[in-house]
Amino acid sequence: MSQSDYNGFAFRVWDNKKKRWSHRNHFIDQRGDLFVQSAFHGLGFLDRKRCIPVFYIEQEDLNDKKVFEGDILQFPDDEFGLGLRHVAKMGVTYEPGFTIIGNIYETPELI
To answer: What is the CA radius of gyration of the chain?
Structure first.
């Protein structure tokens, strides 16, 4: 899965029509519009209903894997043996000790 950069923020793009991560070179302009760069077609506008930018939240899991919005985080078992799950959101800082077990796009059944 490729990652792009917008004003210092790493992001990846989910293609809602193809149901997979896009591996193309993406850009977001100052207005927040999403574009793709192609060697054959130049710069093209992308519909936000089809292509969803998902931003890196500036944290990593126990395996040093970058956490993006929509990642499903698994926290260790508590004293009752319950491991909590949470969907990652921008602006929230998570206590260390979690792992990424999926995301809301590829594995929504884990929520």
So the answer is: 16
Place of tokens 């936000």: 48
* DSSP calls for 83-111: EEEEE--TT-PPPS--EEEEETTT-GGG-
pLDDT tens-digit map of 28-82: 888 888 888 877 766 777 888 889 999 999 999 999 999 999 999 999 887 666 7
Contact (Cβ atoms closer than 8 angstroms) between residue 72 and residue 107: yes
Q: Please check whether residue 67 is in contact with residue 60, taking contact to mean a CB–CB distance below 8 angstroms.
A: yes
pTM of the model: 0.83
Cβ-Cβ contacts under 8 Å for 95 (sequence gap 6 or more): 75
Exposed/middle/buried for residue 43 (C-beta within 10 Å: 0-12, 13-18, 19+): exposed
